[in-house]
Design brief:
There is one protein chain. This protein is of the alpha/beta class and 519 residues long. It has a domain of 332 residues: Trimethylamine methyltransferase-like (TIM Barrel, Alpha-Beta Barrel), CATH 3.20.20. Helix content is 44%, strand content 12%. The protein contains 20 helices and 20 strands. Strands 6-18-17-14-12-10-9 form a seven-stranded parallel β-sheet. The radius of gyration is 24 Å and the shape is globular. This is Methyltransferase. Keywords: Methyltransferase, Transferase. Its EC number is 2.1.1.-. It comes from Ruegeria denitrificans.
C-alpha cells in the first residue's frame, strides 16, 4: 500500500488534506514504532518492590503452582523442583537463575522484514484486538457471533494502520469455520492479508505446529532459517489462581525448542481470581508468570520471553470484569517496576469494559494505553478494537483507538521537547515583539505543516461548522472510514509460488482432519 511505506511531509492545512492523501483514505503517520522517551511511573518504593518479590517467591516456594502438563512436571522434577501430584514448588534461587537467562530485548521478523519489531528496552509496539467471540458494527447495530468475513475485514484494518505493529490472535473468532480447521483458514488469511508479525494459539500441538510451518512457508525460509531467530510468537494465560493447563504449556515448549518468542500473561482479576488488594494480585500474577518462564528457560536457555500483566479488578456489585480503572492502571505500573526488577520485557493491554464505541470505551481504553506508556510496556496487546471486556471486536472502536495510538506515537517524538536555538526561537520572538503575531513569520511558515499532530478522525471544526457538515459523531465517522478502507484495501505483495504453497498446505492439513476437537 502506498501510504504504509512512503514517508511524506504534510503540505497545506486542513483544506489540503485531500491533496495530501492522494487516493489514500486517510493521511496517517508512517510506520515508526515509538521509543518511550519518558521515565516510567513508579508507585512502589524499594521496600514495596522487595515486598512484592518476596510475596511472589513465597507463593512459589510454599504454596506452589499446579501444572497439568505431564512433560512439564517431569522437566521441573529433573530441575530439582518439588513435584507432588500436579503441584510444583520451586526455590527462588532456581527461579531467579532461570529468569536471568531471558534476553532483555529481541526481535520478531515477519515475512516482510521491513516490519521487523524489537521487543524490550524502551521500544513499544501495538497489536490488534485478539480473540473476541463476538462482533459489533454500526451497520449491524447489535452484538453478533464473529465470522470469517468479519475476521478478514479486521485483519485488513490491522494491515492498513501503520500504528498497528503486530497481528495478534484472531481479531474476532470466525465461528462459522469449524474449530478443527479454523486455524488453517485464519492463518492463511493473516499471512496473505497482512505482512506483520504473526501469533499462534497454544491450543493443541497440531495448531502450533501448523502455524509454525505456515509462517516458515510464508517467509520463504528453510527450517534452519526459521529457527535461527524469532519469526512469530505466542501468548499464553495461566488459569488463575495458580494453575497452568496442558495445551498452553505444551505449545510453548514446542515454540521454545524452535526458537520462537513466548509471552506469559496471567489473567488475575482482583477480588475474583486473585486477592482483592492490588499488591497481592500483582504478586500472584508474577508467581504464575515466573514459574512458566523458568520452565521454558530450563528447556532452552535464552529463549525470548515476555512477562505479561492482565491484572485488573471486578465490579464487586456484579462480579463483572472492569478495565481501564485506577486499580488497573496502578497494577500495570507496579508490574512494570517488577519487570524491570527481573530484567524482563513486558506486555500489557489496551482494554475497556464498555459495550459499544462510546465515551466510556474511549476513556477506559485511553487509561489502559497510557498506563502501558507509564509502565514501560514493550508489547501492547488489544491496542485497537476491544469492547465488552474482550467479548466484542468492533471496527469503529479499532479506528477510534488508532487515533489514540497515533497521538501516543507523536507524543514520544523527541522534536516536541527539543530545546535547540531553532526551538527556543528567540529571533522569532524578537521579530514579533510585543504587538504582532506568529502566523505569518518565516519561522512558522517553515514549520507549520509538521509542527503539530494532525488527526485523521477527530473533528476540530467549531459546532456550527460541524453541524453544517452533517453533525456526524465520532463513531459514525469511524464507520464511514472503515467502509472506505475495506473497499480500497490492497493486500501486501506475496509471491504467487508461496501463496500456492500455503494453499496446498492448508488443503492437505484439512484433508488430514486438521486439529482434533471434542465436539
Amino acid at each position: 500500500m502506498a501510504d504504509t511505506k512512503t514517508r511524506r511531509r504534510r503540505s497545506g492545512g486542513r483544506a489540503g488534506a485531500a491533496e495530501r492523501r492522494g487516493t489514500a483514505v486517510i493521511d496517517q503517520m508512517p510506520w515508526n514504532p515509538p521509543i518511550n522517551i519518558d521515565h516510567p511511573t513508579e508507585p512502589l518504593d524499594q521496600d514495596g518492590i522487595e515486598a512484592i518479590h518476596e510475596g511472589a517467591m513465597r507463593i512459589l516456594e510454599e504454596i506452589g503452582v499446579e501444572f497439568y502438563n505431564v512433560e512439564a512436571k517431569g522437566i521441573l522434577r529433573e530441575a530439582g523442583c518439588m513435584v507432588e501430584g500436579d503441584n510444583v514448588r520451586m526455590g527462588r534461587d532456581f527461579v531467579m537463575e532461570m529468569v536471568g537467562k531471558v534476553p532483555s530485548s529481541f526481535t520478531i521478523t515477519p515475512r516482510n522484514t521491513d516490519r521487523t519489531i524489537e521487543i524490550g528496552g524502551k521500544n513499544m509496539v501495538f497489536g490488534n484486538v485478539s480473540s473476541p467471540p463476538n462482533y459489533w458494527d454500526m451497520e449491524i447495530g447489535t452484538k453478533v457471533s464473529g465470522n470469517r468475513e468479519m475476521c478478514r475485514n479486521l485483519l485488513k484494518l490491522t494491515q492498513y494502520f501503520n500504528c498497528i505493529h503486530f497481528a495478534g490472535g484472531y481479531p474476532v473468532e470466525p465461528v462459522d469455520l469449524h474449530a478443527s480447521v479454523r486455524h488453517l483458514d485464519v492463518l492463511y488469511d493473516k499471512l496473505t492479508l497482512t505482512d506483520k508479525a504473526m501469533h499462534a494459539y497454544c491450543l493443541g500441538k497440531e495448531r502450533v505446529e501448523d502455524v509454525m510451518e505456515m509462517v516458515r512457508i510464508a517467509g520463504g525460509l528453510s527450517h534452519e532459517e526459521f529457527e535461527a531467530t524469532p519469526r512469530m510468537y505466542s501468548n499464553i494465560n495461566s488459569t488463575s489462581p495458580l494453575k497452568h493447563d496442558h495445551p498452553m504449556i505444551d505449545g510453548c515448549l514446542r515454540l521454545a525448542r524452535r526458537g520462537q518468542a513466548i509471552v506469559v500473561t496471567p489473567f488475575t482479576l482482583a477480588g475474583a481470581m486473585a486477592p482483592v488488594t492490588m499488591a497481592g494480585a500483582v504478586a500472584q500474577s508474577l508467581a504464575e508468570s515466573l514459574c512458566a518462564i523458568a520452565l521454558f528457560q530450563y528447556v532452552r536457555p535464552g529463549i525470548p520471553c515476555v512477562i505479561g500483566t492482565f491484572t485488573s479488578n471486578v465490579d464487586m456489585k456484579s462480579g463483572a470484569p472492569a478495565f481501564g480503572t485506577p486499580e488497573y492502571m496502578r497494577s500495570t505500573q507496579m508490574t512494570g517496576q517488577m519487570a524491570r526488577f527481573y530484567g524482563l520485557p513486558m506486555r500489557s493491554s489496551g482494554v475497556c469494559a464498555a459495550n459499544v464505541p462510546d465515551g466510556q470505551s474511549v476513556w477506559e481504553t485511553s487509561n489502559s494505553l497510557w498506563a502501558s506508556v507509564q509502565s514501560g510496556t514493550n508489547m501492547v496487546y488489544h491496542a485497537a478494537g476491544w469492547l465488552e471486556g474482550g467479548l466484542i471486536a468492533s471496527p469503529e472502536k479499532f479506528i477510534m483507538d488508532c487515533e489514540i495510538l497515533q497521538q501516543i506515537q507523536r507524543y514520544m517524538q523527541a522534536e516536541i521537547t527539543a530545546t535547540g536555538p531553532d526551538e527556543i526561537a528567540l529571533d522569532a520572538i524578537r521579530a514579533v515583539g510585543n504587538d504582532g503575531h506568529f502566523f505569518g513569520i518565516q519561522h512558522t511558515q517553515d514549520r507549520y505543516t509538521t509542527a503539530f499532530y494532525q488527526p485523521f478522525l477527530s473533528d476540530w471544526k467549531n459546532y456550527e461548522g460541524w453541524n453544517v457538515a452533517g453533525g456526524i459523531w465520532t463513531a459514525e465517522r469511524a464507520h464511514h472510514m472503515f467502509k472506505e478502507i475495506i473497499t480500497s484495501f490492497e493486500p501486501p505483495a506475496l509471491d504467487d509460488a508461496i501463496r500456492d504453497e500455503l494453499a496446498d498446505f492448508v488443503a492437505r492439513r484439512k484433508a488430514e482432519g486438521g486439529a482434533p476437537t471434542d465436539f
